[in-house]
Structures are given as structure tokens and as C-alpha cells.
Backbone:
């Protein structure tokens, strides 16, 4: 190797050392605390929905990944979860979470309710974590095949900032459109898709 080539290679190595040429910017992780019974079918649905979202975020080159999923050491009372779901407590507009949620230390909290409330999801706001409340899963519609994983994915979509759409073939379809969780019913495991507009919105926010 002649002197000039060896010198040039040395410069490239030094530049690579100072400014890594192929290293992407760091990906942030949003930890998820799941509060509820240890043995609960919704925990598998959560794992699958988190995998779905991480595939979507990776395909968008987003600098965000969901997880790890961590254990939460408490049960959040159903009457409190119902009042949040009913919109009686002003948490959805960035208000603080009730003290029952304090010191959980996760970026997102998923509460497994034993009540037949309406599942909800809301993004982190004002320094408080994102929140998902899931209705009981031992009765319809969450007990129907393929529904729970899509409901979790839908609510995590709200945590990521997506609003409702009105197309019943899409994951984020919801009120005021007449889309209800039972529409996710399927004998084959599949996630309902995002629209291109939703993907663009996520890319703008998290890239
Ligand atoms: Zn929704």
C-alpha cells in the first residue's frame, strides 16, 4: 500500500471515529406498564399490538419504539377507570392523572379493567404518561377472535397521537363513525391497517 493511500484510509478511520458515518440517531423507547391481573388474555394482545406498532414505526424510520413492557404493582379501581372512560375526569385534555397512577414511572400505562366500559387511549401530555384503559375481555366484543389485539393497537394509536378515521376497514376507525370493536372480528390473526395519511403524520412527528 502506497503512502498516500495509507494516509487517506487513516483519515477515513479518524473521521469515522469522531463522527460515526453509518450510525442512525438514537431511538427513544416508551416503556409500558401493564396494571391488572397477572393471568389475563389481554397481556398477549398487548405484546402483539406492541410488535405491530414497532414494525410500523421501524418501516417509517421513526425514532421511537414501544416497550419494554413492565409489570405494574397495583390494580387501578374500576370505578376510577370508568370515570376516566366516561370523560367525567378531565384527563383526556392533558389534565393530571389521579393519584392512584402516581409513581408508576412508565411512559405509557395500560390498565386492564374488569368493567364493561368503553376502551380509551390518550397520548402523553403535560408531563403525564400516555394512558390506555381496556374493557373486560371475558365477554364480547373483546372475547371475539382477533378483536382484543386490534383494540389494543387502536388505543396505542391514540397514545401515538392519531385521531379517529371513518373507514371501517382501517385500524383507527371510531366515533362518530359507526365503527365498533366487533368489526375487528376475524378467524385469522391480522391487524387492521393504517392509512397513508396516518403514516405520514406519524413520520412527521417521530422521525
Ligand atoms: Zn378510538
Residues:
Amino acid at each position: 500500500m502506497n503512502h498516500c493511500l495509507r494516509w487517506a484510509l487513516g483519515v477515513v478511520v479518524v473521521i469515522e471515529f469522531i463522527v460515526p458515518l453509518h450510525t442512525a440517531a438514537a431511538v427513544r423507547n416508551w416503556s409500558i406498564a401493564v396494571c391488572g391481573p397477572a393471568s389475563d388474555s389481554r397481556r398477549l394482545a398487548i405484546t402483539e399490538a406492541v410488535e405491530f406498532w414497532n414494525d410500523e414505526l421501524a418501516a417509517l424510520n421513526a425514532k421511537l419504539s414501544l416497550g419494554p413492557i413492565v409489570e405494574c404493582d397495583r390494580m387501578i379501581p374500576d370505578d376510577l377507570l370508568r370515570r376516566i372512560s366516561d370523560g367525567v375526569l378531565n384527563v383526556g385534555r392533558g389534565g393530571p392523572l389521579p393519584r392512584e397512577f402516581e409513581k408508576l414511572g412508565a411512559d405509557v400505562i395500560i390498565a386492564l379493567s374488569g368493567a364493561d366500559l368503553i376502551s380509551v387511549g390518550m397520548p402523553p401530555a403535560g408531563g403525564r404518561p400516555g394512558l390506555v384503559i381496556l374493557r373486560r375481555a371475558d365477554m364480547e366484543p373483546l372475547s371475539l377472535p382477533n378483536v382484543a389485539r386490534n383494540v389494543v393497537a387502536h388505543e396505542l394509536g391514540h397514545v401515538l397521537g392519531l385521531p379517529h378515521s371513518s373507514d371501517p376497514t382501517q385500524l383507527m376507525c371510531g366515533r362518530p363513525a359507526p365503527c365498533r370493536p366487533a368489526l375487528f372480528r376475524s378467524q385469522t390473526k391480522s391487524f387492521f391497517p393504517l392509512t397513508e395519511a396516518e403514516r405520514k403524520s406519524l413520520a412527521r412527528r417521530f422521525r
Q: What stands out?
A: The two ends are 42 Å apart (CA to CA).
